[in-house]
Amino acid sequence: MIFVSDRALKLKIRHIIVLATAEHDIAMSKTTRIADPSYELMDDHNGLSIIYREHGFPCPLVRWHFHKEYELHLIVASSGKVFVGDYIGNFNPASLFLTGPNLPHNWISQIDEGEVVAKRDMLVNFTDELLESGNQVFAELKTLTPLLERARYGIEFRCKRTIRQAMKLMQKIADSRGITRLGHFFILLELLAASDDYQLLSGTAVAHTADEHSVDRTNRAVDYIFAHYGRELPLEEVAEYLGMKPTYFSRVFKQATGRCFVEFVNRLRISKSCELLADGDKPVTDVCFESGFNNISNFNRRFQQLKGMTPSHYRRLAVQRLTEQNLY
């Protein structure tokens, strides 16, 4: 039996990484002139441990989807709605998220018809294999385990200072290759693992297996709901749009999103109301109807159920938090 020292093993790993990076750079030099990076296949890693990409909006990559990789997702421009597992919320420029393997997610910008955002997203994708293999050699990587466990529910990072540092590191990842890129990547994960100002998003670690037909239908349903939730929107209308029977659509939709149709729509409307409450001084009644509710008592009841407070109380807290953030 041949025993290999830790030092020799580490040197071997470094050698493999360098070779893989060189092969990748050669391949990319041949293809970047004819291929849009936005269309890079998620499972085509070219032998590399991490993938960096960026894209605009609209873009074919913007859809309800999931994949085996973790995804660190930074919003560069525009505001809109974020969907992670069974969570629905708001995003703005400098919003930073981390999603785990097979956790469905999507970001839909609220922009004018015909408007194009050239660069909306910066993403870093990586797999379990990278860290599981690394844990066997570098004990320090085990400190990242709690972060990765939380990512299975989806994480939004809140600390502005952390996000600013993360943005710089993501740009360094974009601009570098090989071991230098890996170095920036691990510094980035260490930064995020140390942050205690974050929000877990999905109520459950919703995990899906690949079913392209189901994912496509769910994506179309979410897009349709997003476009029409500001008015009365019965389940039957969406089912007809998809060419499905209402009972079947109801079952498929709940399996895909973790929420029944009515609850999903109500959460989307409450999310919109939170946005309106935080951004302005509209009367609560106006917020109610603009969010898609047609009854103020139903709006107040749903808001209390989901947020644990009244709309007026939420507005006061949102203003207070914004004031505190502006101090840093």
Automatic annotation (TrEMBL):
Pfam families tied to this protein: HTH_18 (PF12833)
Keyword Ion transport: no
Native source species: Pseudomonas meliae
Keywords tagged on the record: DNA-binding, Transcription, Transcription regulation
Protein known as: Transcriptional activator MltR
Domain of life of the native organism: Bacteria
Residue ranges of domain HTH araC/xylS-type in the record: 219-317
Any GO MF annotation of the entry: DNA-binding transcription factor activity
A biological process from GO: positive regulation of metabolic process
PROSITE patterns: HTH_ARAC_FAMILY_1 (PS00041), HTH_ARAC_FAMILY_2 (PS01124)
